[in-house]
Specification:
Blueprint (H helix, E strand, L loop, with lengths): L2 H21 L2 H7 L5 H8 L3 H14 L2 E3 L5 E3 L4 H4 L8 H14 L2 H8 L9 H4 L3 H26 L6 E5 L5 H9 L4 E6 L20 E5 L10 E7 L7 H14 E14 L7 H13 L5 E2 H10 L3 E6 L5 E8 L3
Helix pairs in contact: 1-4, 1-6, 3-4, 6-9, 9-10
Length: 331
């Protein structure tokens, strides 16, 4: 079987195994307590040795874990940053979301393929906001998915000279916090649903900048956006169709003090839409969970220009998410 097909066939098991290992502290123990054999690791974690060893074999085959000649398991060096809870690139919350939320919605694909996606389908945010625990879990997933890459994106966007950043739909502020850490003169406001407000600033990385981080509660469909000289949409516009994106960008144009700019930070398809894999996979998730899609850089620029922004540019990061910038000039 070709390796690409083999990974696809057995991919059903990969994410749940990762999630279970995260939840039971397998990776934390291997990182903080050091490599261990399966029996020793099972003893540390007080878990069933046979089940653990079978999981470790899957993780070894995936290239997440490696086993030394003496039988001791350890994480591969390139996996460590993403599975270490202390690292800003930690993906545990996102893995949990894929396992507990996204996987349960995949059965919809059959209906969508046969009949199309119902225009009247309930909003995915109904699930997110169903209770305080669900909201906190979702916000944790968004922080884990966003804060690490936001540090690169903030540097790439260049915040020097910006006075007031408005992070639209900014969740608990992963991009806002990353931006504030780059420039001590910057102020930032997170704009999101009122229920998110109490969670903003909870993360340790936010504490040094808490005095410059504000929150405004509202609904970006019903309300105008707070004013600033830089408005950011971090992984927001891929949730919505083109016309809705233009409406939101027009609100950003009105709220943007000239000369100012808007930042779109999102996954980008290659121009020929052949990849990358993460963008293609999450493009399908957007169809299942949201009402949007992922786009090429040119498609985002077209949306910016429809909303009135000009002098658009693309700044590409080393990872999956990049920055598309539109400028608002003085009248």
């Amino acid at each position: 079987m070709p390796s690409a097909l083999e990974n696809s066939v057995y991919g059903l098991l990969s994410t749940p195994v990762l999630h279970t290992a995260v939840e039971h502290g397998v990776f934390t123990s291997l990182i903080e307590d050091g490599p261990a054999t399966a029996p020793r690791l099972a003893e540390r974690l007080d878990v069933d040795q046979d089940t653990l060893e079978r999981m470790l074999l899957v993780l070894t085959s995936l290239g997440v874990v490696e086993r030394a000649a003496g039988g001791e398991y350890s994480l591969t060096s390139d996996a460590v940053p993403f599975l270490d809870r202390r690292n800003s690139r930690y993906l545990g919350g996102f893995i949990k979301h894929l396992t507990l939320e996204t996987r349960g919605r995949l059965d919809r694909l059959d209906t969508y393929l046969s009949e199309g996606k119902p225009a009247t389908e309930a909003s995915p945010f109904d699930d997110v906001y169903r209770d305080a625990e669900s909201l906190r879990d979702f916000m944790r997933a968004m922080w884990d998915l966003s804060f690490g890459v936001s540090q690169e994106l903030a540097a790439l966007a260049g915040m020097a000279g910006t006075k007031h950043l408005v992070d639209v739909g900014g969740a608990t502020g992963p991009f806002a916090v990353a931006a504030l850490l780059t420039d001590p003169a910057l102020r930032a406001t997170v704009f999101d649903m009122p229920a998110v407000g109490p969670l903003v600033g909870e993360d340790a990385e936010a504490r040094p900048v808490a005095d410059r981080l504000g929150f405004v509660g509202g609904d970006f469909f019903a309300d105008e956006l707070p004013q600033g000289d830089c408005l950011a949409f971090g992984y927001i516009l891929s949730d919505w169709d083109d016309d809705t994106c233009v409406t939101l960008l027009q609100k950003a144009y009105r709220a943007c003090r000239a000369p100012g700019r808007v930042l779109i930070m999102d996954r980008l398809f290659e121009d020929d839409r052949t990849g990358p894999l993460a963008t293609a996979a999450m493009n399908l998730v957007m169809h299942i969970e949201m009402a949007g899609k992922h786009r090429t850089a040119a498609e985002f620029i077209a949306l910016l220009e429809r909303a009135g922004f000009g002098d658009c540019e693309v700044r590409r990061a080393s990872g999956e998410k990049h920055v598309v910038i539109g400028h608002k000039r003085q009248s």
